[in-house]
Design a protein that fits this description.
The protein is α+β, with helices and mostly antiparallel strands. It contains nine helices and 18 strands.
């Protein structure tokens, strides 16, 4: 299950990355969970409870429970469970003279039992992973609908900004040999350096391989080309069907893969704003056709754009907008192109 689907304290407590942040003060894990909290502020109470539980666990760990003590606790817990029967809860008689200390000790015992149970579970999971040689790998899908962008950090420290109408698939943990993800749509990557494990992005018939760098990939399914542009570092781009058809990109170089011709072309120099402005929350048009304007408005605002009776419209539009409302953008486009428009709920009609 992906962390963005967590709905309980238990799920957070049992997440290895969450444990690494709280118990081991891991910097990469801390950055990941701080971003997670920004994206899901409504789950702050879950995070606080889980953090408190793990810190309590850390106190218990200082008591240096041995494996024999944990195994003994397991047997005790199991024997109590089977003796009481499933679903039963012990009932304590209420005595008027029972003092506060007695009830505090009972509460402390219950808390300690829960924490020891957690230790037992973790020991069992670690033993199971060791005996099997590896723990199962599951694929996580991150989807941004039109009108939404999101920034998140993968478990290796790689930072990804995913554009609207885009999907990214990645494993809950990478293999020792390589780091592989799959992209449909557009994303900007800042790949964490790891010389022993190259980072590969699969986009249709194109494979992009890096070690540590910053670059943008545009790979929307409906478009004729896949585009890879490098900001920092170097990137190897090749066709999955033809490993020999590959190009090495350095900063300020761009590769375009034609899906019909199955060919990769390389160019030096490109307009920064045309490629990277979206990640800076700037919508940029450069000599855009009416069709280009339609596609970008739909992805940016999550709306439907309908063009009526403008088959012969050939004018091109250039402009940029930083976090502007849809109405402001449409007014500016209409003023320059002499087009007319109307906004009806989640739909824009251009005529």
């Amino acid at each position: 299950m992906s962390p963005d689907q967590y709905t309980s304290v238990e799920q957070l407590v049992l997440d290895e990355s969450f444990q690494a942040w709280i118990l081991e003060e891991d910097a990469i894990a801390r950055e990941f969970w701080e971003e997670w909290l920004i994206q899901y502020p409504e789950k702050q109470h879950l995070l606080k409870e889980a953090k408190g539980l793990l810190l309590s666990l850390q106190v218990v760990k200082k008591e240096q429970l041995s494996d024999e003590e944990i195994d003994s606790a397991v047997q005790t817990i199991q024997s109590v469970a089977f003796r009481k029967g499933p679903g039963t809860v012990p009932v304590y008689p209420i005595h008027r003279k029972a003092n506060r200390i007695h009830w505090l000790s009972v509460a402390a015992s219950i808390a300690l039992l829960f924490i020891v149970t957690f230790l037992v579970y973790r020991k069992y999971k670690n033993d199971q992973a060791f005996s099997e040689g590896t723990s199962p790998v599951t694929m996580i899908e991150k989807y941004n609908p039109r009108g939404r962008k999101a920034t998140f950090i993968l478990y290796d420290g790689t930072k990804v900004k995913l554009n609207g109408d885009s999907r990214l698939w990645f494993p809950n943990k990478f293999s020792p040999e390589e780091r592989v993800v799959k992209l449909q749509g557009e994303a900007f990557f800042q790949v964490a350096k790891d010389s022993q494990r190259p980072f590969r992005i699969l986009t249709g018939d194109v494979v992009t391989t890096v070690v540590g760098t910053s670059f943008n990939i545009n790979a929307y399914e409906e478009e004729e080309e896949i585009q890879v542009a490098v900001l920092e570092g170097s990137v190897l781009v090749n066709s999955r069907g033809n490993q020999r058809d590959s190009v090495l990109l350095k900063p300020h170089e761009i590769a375009n893969y034609n899906k019909v011709q199955a060919e990769i072309t390389k160019h030096t120099g490109f307009d920064y704003e045309s490629v990277f402005s979206w990640k800076d929350d700037v919508m940029y048009f450069k000599e855009a056709s009416l069709s280009d304007i339609k596609d970008q408005l739909e992805r940016w605002y999550g709306i439907e754009v309908e063009i009526q009776g403008k088959d012969d419209f050939t004018a091109l539009y250039t402009g940029k907008f930083s976090n502007e409302r849809l109405e402001i953008v449409m007014q500016a486009i209409a003023e320059v192109t002499h087009l007319h428009y109307k906004i009806q709920n989640e739909k824009v009609i251009i005529y």
